[in-house]
Every structure is written in C-alpha cells, then in structure tokens.
C-alpha cells in the first residue's frame, strides 16, 4: 500500500499555505512532518484526512479500499482531543466504537493506561489524560493510516512510552503513520517532510 501526493497546493482564506508539496509513504513506514509554525503541517494532515481540499495536485492511496475515501481509512488525531466532557472515559470510547465501526473498548483503555479511569467523567480529566483518551481511538478501531498532529503534547514519559509501543505495533502490521512533531517518537522515521524549508 502506498500513499502518494504530487504537487499539492493548499489555500485557506485566499492565502497559499503551501504549494508544490509531494510525498510518498509505504506500508510499515513512519513519516515525520516538520516545519515552523504556520508552514502548513496541520493543513496538510487535514487535507490528507479529507477535511481540507487541495487547490491543486493529486493524492491517492494505492491498494486501499477503493470504495472508501482516504479519510475513511485514516485516524486523524488533532490538537483538540474531540472528547465529550459530559460522558465518562468508557462512554467516549464506546461512542467512537459505534461511530467508526466496532472495536474493543477494554483493549483501548488498557493500551493507554486508562482502565482505572473508565467511569471517570471526561470533563474532569487532566490535559494529559484527555490526550491519552484521544489517542486510545488508534487502538480502538483499526485504520491503516494514522495522521497525528503533535501527538506527544501533554504526555508524561510513561504515556509517551505507551504511544511509542502502540505506534511500533501498528507499523509492524503494515500500517502507515504521518506525525507532525519535533519530538523523537522512539524510532527513526523512514522519511521526513519539511514544510516551509525555503522560507
């Protein structure tokens, strides 16, 4: 499976965020996305996830599910955790399980050390705990492509170790990850893409 993008241009509010960006990512590979603030890292992830539309260029997932969009085959974890504060930790994951098509809530809780917080109201979680709850979606429902926007923000060292382990398992089964981060992720990326390098 190959994710490929050619000469991608993204425009927002009449401004060109980035242009002529190309990328290629194969099964089992980790891409590290870097660049200064405002260079378009989040915009590129949102474009791949189908939340932004490119002004020009091509984007394709070869050997994916032909009847699904790239976004439907991806997990996108953004800066905002998409946590429903009125629900418990377990209820949040149960919502995503039902919405995204199945999964083991217990396994997802365990993967990010949330089991003892299962009945805890999500609105009372710390920033790091909310981040772990958002990341638990990665384990909850299988998706071949993970798009992670600063995934380590708010994580302590133990939680970072959990994330590294989960990422390694995903890559080991042929998954693909694009992570916008300047923080080491437990292994050397197979490829790097720097936005705004010439500015």
Walk me through what this model shows:
This protein has about 200 residues and is an alpha/beta fold. It has one domain (about 1-195): Rossmann fold, CATH 3.40.50. It has helices at about 40-50, 90-100, 105-110, 125-135, 135-140, 155-170; strands spanning about 1-10, 15-25, 30-35, 55-60, 75, 145-150, 175-180, 190-195. The strands form two sheets. The chain has a five-stranded parallel beta sheet with strand order 5-6-7-3-8, with helices on both faces. A three-stranded antiparallel beta sheet has the order 2-1-4, with helices on one face. Helix 2 crosses helix 3 (about 105-110). The longest helix has 16 residues, at about 155-170. It is globular and about 45 Å long.
Low-confidence runs: none
Distance between the termini: 33 Å
Number of domains: 1
Task: Walk across the major sheet and give the strand order.
Answer: 5-6-7-3-8
Strand content is 25-35%
Radius of gyration: 17 Å
Secondary structure class reads alpha/beta
CATH topology: Rossmann fold
CATH architecture: 3-Layer(aba) Sandwich
Question: Can you tell me the CATH class?
Answer: Alpha Beta
N-to-C order of helices and strands: EEEHEEHHHHEHEE
Average pLDDT works out at 91
Helix content: 25-40%
By DSSP, the count of extended strands is 8
- Superfamily (CATH H level) name: P-loop containing nucleotide triphosphate hydrolases
User: What is the number of helical segments per DSSP (H or I, 4+ residues)?
Assistant: 6
């Amino acid at each position: 499976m190959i994710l490929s993008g050619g000469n991608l241009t993204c425009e927002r509010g009449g401004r060109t965020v980035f242009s002529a960006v190309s990328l290629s990512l194969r099964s089992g590979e980790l891409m590290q996305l870097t660049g200064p603030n405002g260079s378009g890292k989040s915009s590129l992830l949102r474009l791949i996830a189908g939340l932004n539309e490119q002004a020009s260029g091509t984007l394709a997932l070869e050997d994916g599910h032909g009847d699904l969009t790239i976004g439907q085959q991806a997990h996108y974890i953004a800066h905002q955790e998409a946590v429903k504060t009125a629900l418990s930790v377990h209820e949040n994951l149960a919502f995503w399980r039902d919405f995204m098509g199945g999964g083991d809530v217990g396994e997802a809780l365990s993967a990010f050390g949330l089991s003892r917080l299962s009945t805890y109201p999500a609105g009372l979680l710390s920033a790091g705990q909310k981040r772990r709850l958002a990341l638990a979606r990665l384990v909850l429902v299988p998706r071949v492509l993970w798009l992670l926007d600063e995934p380590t923000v708010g994580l302590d060292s133990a939680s970072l170790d959990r994330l590294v382990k989960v990422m390694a398992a995903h890559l080991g089964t042929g998954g693909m990850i694009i992570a916008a981060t300047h923080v080491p992720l437990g292994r050397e990326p197979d490829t790097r893409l720097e936005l705004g390098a010439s500015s």
